[in-house]
Amino acid sequence: MNDIVTIIIYISLFIILFGIFSFSFAKSQKTQNDVSYLYLCICVIGWLISETAIKFIYDERLSLYFYNLALIFVGFLPIAFFNFSFYFYMPERKLRFISLLFIIPTINALMSISSNFHSLSIISVGENLFVVGPWFYVHTIFSYTITSLSLIVIMYGHIKLPKFYRLPSALLVLSIFILIGGNFIFLMGLRPSIIGSANTTLLSSCISIILIHIAIIKSDENVFSRYARGEVFNYLNEHVLVMNIEGRIVDCNSSAKRWLSSMEIDFYLRPLKRNHHAYRTKRRITKRRCRRQ
User: Fold this and answer.
1) Range of the domain at 286
2) Is the pTM of this model over 0.85?
3) Residues 279, 265: contact at Cβ < 8 Å?
């Protein structure tokens, strides 16, 4: 009965996640943020398929094969989450050391593929019963370290964002805490009976994907509204100047730029009051020259 409930939950989540992945792939503009989200989806969907297959299969060898396959996707998942978190808050930057982070997950994948020839990863001890080898702990420590880095990036990025843009970020913050909470429930053995024998870490990962998808949609809406506001700001006929405390112009619309340029004011170098004084002095000198002539 527990397995039937779990299978229903897994299949339902697969349909939802596959729909989200298809939508995201169709709308993708091939930015770092889009690519990292698709990579994150692939990791979770691959893990979900592997766990679902295990529930259907009672053959020991096939079960071990899908356990190892799930372990490969689980190994790459923390990197995918960190990659997405980084580009969500800093899309203009590049992760130069990202290739180094793939070393441990790649070794983990090779260990999983060749598990029949060694006892370093997962060892089968009976029907759907497995014990872990020493490499499993290396992979686990690495995964928790990268997840902790993701949490730091998300919290730091969330605090630095203006309040107007915090809703998408709040969803991302919620997703990382759900992921950590689901893993804590799994480790403590506090799984509620209503979800059958489902892996709570996997369920929390699926929920995180859904929340992140909503965050991306909200983020795109914010970008669009910011673009629309910028267009209105630029094409106003009135002169709009944005100044800091020192009186220096930090931004202005197109109309104000034309006006300042016509006065030959070097407004990016000195405060506005000094520039205006320089303009008035220059104008007086020009008038005097005209009168003499």
Assistant:
1) 241-292
2) no
3) yes
